[in-house]
């Protein structure tokens, strides 16, 4: 994935506008379909003049935040993402990260302790053995990456809502955040965290989750795009302060529904 915002001081206005148009044309952005609102109309709505690079960037961020609100509002906690049969699993399942497969972090499972923080009653860290004793769940779902590929895989673990219940999470809080063993970090909305298909997973296709797919654990959400699914989770926290995410902070949409 490429950062959407330019990191240089000279922002390439033309490509930013292309990104805005692209956002508008994505199926999940239907409500802002190009037939309903023009770029100019959106600029007026968001109070941006688009007269300089900085206002273009502010404009983009506002559009993205409006999209977050609309997507949260459209999200139906009872709607299930499709599931598939074993025969439909994509083999081999693709690896993806912001780095090469040779640089996958190696986490030592024996010493591993999952940190839990923020708005939870029980901040005690979890060993893998403790996590493996949680009620088990498994599903075969489609993982969709914004880079233009999708693949069907089989993940096993525990319903994330069950984990949140065990740690006494304040489920009226807005966000659940994740810190990973690489420099990755993510955050999700609470309704998605509690969705019945959101699993904290420890296995892939019946085997211990291999390093490339996120050992020791990956949060697997078939209702969200690939980049929202953190691998190599080291810490989970509940908060009302927007935690952002690795790609979100580079201009991607935060809600990231699929
Ligand atoms: N820790 C971490 N999690 C991550 C990423 C990453 O680079 N680091 N990449 C994300 C992206 S963009 C995708 S598509 C999926 C890829 O998961 P896979 O390797 O199991 O296919 O992981 C997501 N979670
Ligand atoms: Mo991705």
UniProtKB/TrEMBL annotation:
| Signal sequence, start to end | none
Q: Which residues form the Oxidoreductase molybdopterin-binding domain?
A: 103-247
Concerning InterPro entries, the annotation shows: OxRdtase_Mopterin-bd_dom, OxRdtase_Mopterin-bd_sf
Q: Which Pfam families match?
A: Oxidored_molyb
The protein in question is named Molybdopterin-binding oxidoreductase
Organism equals Caballeronia humi
């Amino acid at each position: 994935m490429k950062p959407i915002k330019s990191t240089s001081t000279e922002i390439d206005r033309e490509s930013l506008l292309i990104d805005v148009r692209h956002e508008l044309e994505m199926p999940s952005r239907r409500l802002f379909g190009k037939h309903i609102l023009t770029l100019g109309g959106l600029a007026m709505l968001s109070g941006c003049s688009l007269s300089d690079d900085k206002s273009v960037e502010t404009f983009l961020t506002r559009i993205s935040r409006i999209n977050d609100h609309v997507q949260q509002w459209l999200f139906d906690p009872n709607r299930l993402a499709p599931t598939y049969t074993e025969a439909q699993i994509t083999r081999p399942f693709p690896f993806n990260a912001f780095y090469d497969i040779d640089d996958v972090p190696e986490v030592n499972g024996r010493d591993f302790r999952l940190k839990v923080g923020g708005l939870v009653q029980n901040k005690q860290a979890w060993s893998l053995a403790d996590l493996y004793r949680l009620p088990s769940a498994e599903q075969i779902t489609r993982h969709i990456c914004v880079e233009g590929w999708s693949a069907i895989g089989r993940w096993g673990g525990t319903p994330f809502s069950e984990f949140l219940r065990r740690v006494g999470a304040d489920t009226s809080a807005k966000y659940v955040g994740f810190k990973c063993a690489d420099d990755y970090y993510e955050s999700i909305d609470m309704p998605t965290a509690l969705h019945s298909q959101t699993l904290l997973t420890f296995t892939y296709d019946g085997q211990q989750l291999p390093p490339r797919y996120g050992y020791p654990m990956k949060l697997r959400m078939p209702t969200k795009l690939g980049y929202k699914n953190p691998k190599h989770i080291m810490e989970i926290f509940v908060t009302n302060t927007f935690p952002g995410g690795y790609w979100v902070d580079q201009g991607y949409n935060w809600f990231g529904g699929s």
